[in-house]
Amino acid sequence: MGQIALEGMEFFAFHGYYDEEQKIGNKYGIDLFIDTDLHAAGASDQLRETVNYEVLYRVVAEEMQAPARLLEHLGHRVLDRILAEFPYVNGVRVCVSKFNPPLGGICHRARVTLERRRP
Q1: Is the pTM of this model over 0.85?
Q2: Which of 31, 41, 57, 90 reaches 20 to 30 Å from 78, CA-CA?
Q3: Active site includes 27?
Q4: What's the CATH code of the domain at 54?
Q5: CB 79 within 8 A of CB 24
Q6: Residue 74, helix vs strand vs coil
Q7: Number of compact structural domains in the chain
């Protein structure tokens, strides 16, 4: 077993609970952690034996394009897509951050973390 992580992905997107947020957009961050068996890739040195980082990034980027009101919903969509597209992934953890959320004061980011494992 092992873990693949894509940390510090940043996107400008149009998410938010308030309509205004969905119009003006904001910067968001995603950290993604994939639990999977890395033994075959380690032994063979073949990309086909592991999860392709480019494909993971593409999945996240596509989900970031579809507006969501809540970070929880956005994270849930990312989990669903990864588990659907990568049947050999055993578990996924995603952290979704919104930079400078409109809270009426100083807050560098709001973040939710969601995790799911296959039964």
Answers
A1: yes
A2: 41
A3: no
A4: 3.30.1130.10
A5: no
A6: helix
A7: 1
